[in-house]
Amino acid sequence: MSGVLGANSVLVQAMLVNLLLALSLQIPLRSGVFSFAGLGSYGLGAYTAAIVVLRFDHPALLALAEGVLLSGLVGVLLARLLRRLNGLYLGMASIAYGGILAVVVANGGALTGGAEGLYGVVADLGLTEITVIVLLVVVAVALSERGRTGRAVAAVREDPELAAAMGVDVARVRFVVLVAGCMVGGLAGGINAIMLTNVAPTDFGFHLAVLGLTMIIVGGARTWLGALVGAAIFTWLPIALQALGDWRTVVYGCLVAAVAVWAPHGLIGLAGQAVRAVRRSASRRKPPGPGAGRAPTGAAEVDLLAGEGVGASVGRPM
Q1: CA neighbor of 184 nearest in space, from 125, 133, 131
Q2: Which positions ≥6 away from 149 have C-beta within 8 Å?
Q3: Once rounded to an integer, what is the mean pLDDT over residues 297-318?
Q4: Phi, psi of 159 (to 5 degrees)
Q5: Among residues of the chain, what percentage have pLDDT more than 70?
Q6: Inter-CA distances, 314 with 196, 279, 304, 305, 311, Å
Q7: Is this structure's pTM higher than 0.85?
Q8: Planar angle of CA 65, 72, 156, nearest 5 degrees
Q9: pLDDT tens track for 210-242
Q10: Residue ranges of E strands in the chain
Q11: Which of 141-164 are b and which e, b meaning 16 or more Cβ less than 10 Å from the residue's Cβ?
């Protein structure tokens, strides 16, 4: 197993970076915030890490921390500036952040390397360190999907007015997820710059938005597992389809279209539906127990009846 990972370490590292990139979009989108600010922070984190390594000889972990911190500070500023925007308006305003940053670094002179970028960003960052960092981020995101925090985020996504009436601070949730997305995006950019030893303004263009959205659409936008599945598919699939040449784009388009039509919640959502269908089928085939004739009293029994079209009348006056 270690031999396989060693032979494909570059692809494994690329998959981990793609996972962070997908999470930078998935974190805000899970609460209904359509923000591309994480993609702009991807460039900010990459240039921050590259500059402090090249100009100040900072170690890799410190350079990444500085990129994440600066991305978070810019995220706070953006969250305050864009707090009144929603939907496509927020998406367009946040994606402009990346475009503005690309123009700034392209005209940054010797500090940013201009249009050619920076090369020779060599630091002590290996696959083990990258894996541990990404694992910590994934654990944090997974924990945010559970318990009170997960319920609050889901409520803000589904019905902000109802969430506010139930005591959820909608503005605070949106603020936190936008800043968190920026920090994760900055981390992804910093790792990528050190991993490839170079960074250029063209590294974080509109193609990143397409890649990030594609990964979470195909994998699933409501859980970190969807980001992981999407990152794995769109890291390894191009290698598997090399023989198709330019036809790979057609395959990508067909895959995204098929998922959008038949699995609107991504492959993870489709898998969840399949598991629930198998469980319902198994429960129907299960022989009745001693108390089969009694009226259902538990939540599980009510759910079972609801799955068979009877639960609609449970608790309803006759």
Answers
A1: 133
A2: 143
A3: 38
A4: -155, 90
A5: 87
A6: 60, 22, 12, 9, 5
A7: no
A8: 130
A9: 888 889 988 888 889 999 999 999 888 888 777
A10: 118-119, 198-199
A11: beebbeeeeeebbbbbbeebeebe
